[in-house]
Amino acid sequence: MFQILHAEFLAPGIKRFLIHAPRIARRQKPGQFVIVRIYEEGERIPLTIERSDPPLGTISIVVQSLGKTTHLLNSLNTGDHILDVVGPLGKPSEIEKFGTVVVIGGGVGTAMAYPTAAALKRAGNRITSIVGARSKELVILEKEMRAVSDVLMITTDDGSYADKGFVTDRLRQLIQNGARIDLVLAVGPIPMMKAVADMTRGENIRTIVSLNPIMIDGTGMCGGCRVLVDERSQFACVDGPEFDAHRVNFDVLVQRNKTYREQERRSMADFQREREARPEDVGKEVCVAEGATP
Amino acid sequence: MTVPAKTSLNPLPLKERMKVPRQAMPEQPAGVRATNFTEVNLGYSPELARQEALRCLECARPACTKDCPVGVKVHEFVQLIVAGDFFAAAAKIREDNVLPAVTGRVCPQEDHCEGGCLMGKKVKPLGVGYLERFVADYEQRMGFRAVPKVPPSGKKVAIVGSGPSGLTVAGDLVQKGHKVRVFEALHELGGVLVYGIPEFRLPKQIIREQLDYMRDMGVEFETDVVVGRTVTIDELIEEEGYDAVFIGTGAGLPVFMNIPGEHLNGVYSANEFLTRINLMKAYKFPTYDEPMLDLHGKDVAVIGGGNTALDAIRSALRLGARKAYVIYRRSEAEMPARAEEAKHAREEGIEFHMLTNPVEFLPEGDGWLGAVRCVRMELGEPDASGRRRPAPIAGSAYEIPLSVAVIAIGTSANPIVQSTTPGLGTDKRGYIQADPETQRTSRKGVFAGGDIVTGSATVILAMGAGRRAAKAIHEYLTSGQW
């Protein structure tokens, strides 16, 4: 049982949890994740660790409401418990002095990229961050990213805040302006990561992405999270979750992530129906993210 | 022919014992059980158990105990059944076996106790497995006896992995007064007993009961700890003060065939398939959230011929598969699966395609599995395992339409512990090197046993390693000598 010490929404449908998990806090490194199971009948899902505080024995995770499990998780509050939290899993991000690193966060991906950005900054890199969101209210971690970036650019799809456009527009600009880029780290929706990879491939700019396949155990035991890298299988939970973007087969990742579409829809529909049938639960802060799987 | 000791309680003369037929195990009929996850074997009644126990010849030099990897005193517990003292029979088994309700069900007895049974030369061997199961279930139903508390030794042992080897080490050491804590990576205890072996062969309730008993004995358990990630072995020793560590992490890395199409939706490793169904109870979706593909009306094949393969395909059948195949590259004689499981599988309507090997998974639609292309094989000279090596027959390729394929061709060593424990000797495939008598590794105070040492094998062999390790750990803790 893992206690939620603090829970707060950062944006509609995006919640940060501070969880008491002393062993995980002590060993967490940027880029690693945890596997969470909320309750006895729940599924196991991976969530990136945003930060940890070893002396206090806490970790924080940032969760976006998408399907049933994340909606359920985001309905939990300070003082509630999560049944299982396992970690830290995955290979930590490679932290070195590369030179100038462009960190790109799309949507909730910004929370996932943040710990690595912070570590890269501490390692002496020059950090140019591009944070993208659909609209103003969905921009998260602006303060935190500003604190670890030499340059921070923010884009919103609808132009409601900062620059109108996509993160790739700003990246293209940087490249066209001849900016020196030693490494790009991109974390966000798959189409975004793929677009970044396509843009940097021709420029020979090393690009790392953090992949989000379906996972169950997270320790390499089942192979469910296998991704094709240079057309060979690698397990995202033990060989990743970060991979060289130019070698990843994004199409297969998208295809495999659709395996349980039907079941996910059904779970979500049952879940919505249950919530409607129990109006006393309405008022709990459960936000349906725009465009989420119905 | 041996003469039983004067103290034998068996009223039957020896010649008569051989005439008693082996008592059949009551089972669910195949047609019914292929649709449910309830246990196939229903268990002996006390009458059947006693009748079977009367068959024992009470050999002077019993092969059964010698062949048992944990050394169960078969003759003695069987005679206690004859005497009607089932509790004493249970206590006798427990002197050597901490999981009798498990081994009675899943051991390949034909390779151990029953394989060596003298009677087996002429008639069917003594049903040692069935008898062990009867006694264990009886004890459980009537309530376990309390275990006497032993004075604490002041030493503590960390056990990595709550599978059969780890549980065996825990059970033995706690009875010597050592403080024992078992660390488990998953959220449920039992390892392969819980994520691998299906409900219809090994009900999870049984594992829970055995674990409760171990807690009563004083064993501590901690789940959600991945040793090597959440904490390292060095930290367990240096920071948490453990005097010895036993590594029983199993061979938990799936092996894929590396043939085209293995990434298609609907292609699973047996570990994933079974974990979804057994550990995550996906067969109860949507009551349980972890999803499983709807197999109703679909054709499913498993590739492989071991127990894991049969567990997977029989589970698929129970989930509604229209056709269920086993595709195995060698012949029936080489199949490593437990004899009773192969028999049960055939009765349930599983089709066996022997001497057949997949070469490619073919797609249908948008990234989904549609068929598997196979070639026929013929057996040549024996390979390293002693079994005849299969070779493809040119021009024999054909396709089997499929919606789901489960790859159960074995597992290899999960490297998480090895890669985070400096100085821990491994072989070139990543398995931990351990002394076969003492299970010692190259690191002082660190022992290892089970699949992570031998490669994937059986529950009982893992338990055998656990017993040897517990003995050696106790000697190390009391003598202080490495």
Question: What structural keywords apply?
Answer:
heterodimer, A: about 290 residues, alpha/beta, 7-stranded antiparallel β-sheet, 7-stranded mixed β-sheet, 16 strands, globular, disordered C terminus, B: about 475 residues, 5-stranded parallel β-sheet, about 35% helix, about 15% strand
Task: Describe the structure in your own words.
The complex is a heterodimer of chains A (294) and B (482). By secondary structure, chain A is α/β, with parallel strands linked by helices. Helix content of chain A is 27%, strand content 30%. Chain A has helices at residues 22-27, 68-73, 109-122, 142-148, 167-176, 190-201, 250-257, 261-277; strands spanning 2-11, 14-20, 33-37, 45-53, 58-64, 81-82, 84-89, 100-106, 126-133, 151-156, 163-164, 183-187, 207-210, 226-229, 232-235, 242-244. In chain A, helix 3 (109-122) packs parallel to helix 4 (142-148) and helix 5 runs parallel beside helix 6 (190-201). The longest helix of chain A has 17 residues, at 261-277. Mean pLDDT of chain A is 93; it is low at 282-294. The mean pLDDT of chain B is 94. Chain B has helices spanning 14-19, 30-33, 46-53, 63-67, 74-82, 86-94, 100-106, 113-116, 128-142, 164-174, 192-195, 204-217, 233-238, 270-279, 307-318, 339-347, 416-419, 451-454, 459-479, and strands at 156-160, 179-183, 220-222, 244-247, 253-254, 267-269, 299-303, 323-327, 351-353, 356-364, 368-382, 388-392, 398-401, 404-407, 411-412, 446-448. In chain B, helix 3 packs across helix 5 and helix 7 (100-106) runs antiparallel to helix 9 (128-142). Chain B is built from 19 helices and 16 strands. In chain B, the strands form 4 sheets. Chain B has a 5-stranded parallel β-sheet. A 5-stranded parallel β-sheet of chain B has the order 6-14-7-8-9. In chain B, strands 10, 11, 12 and 13 form a 4-stranded antiparallel β-sheet that branches.
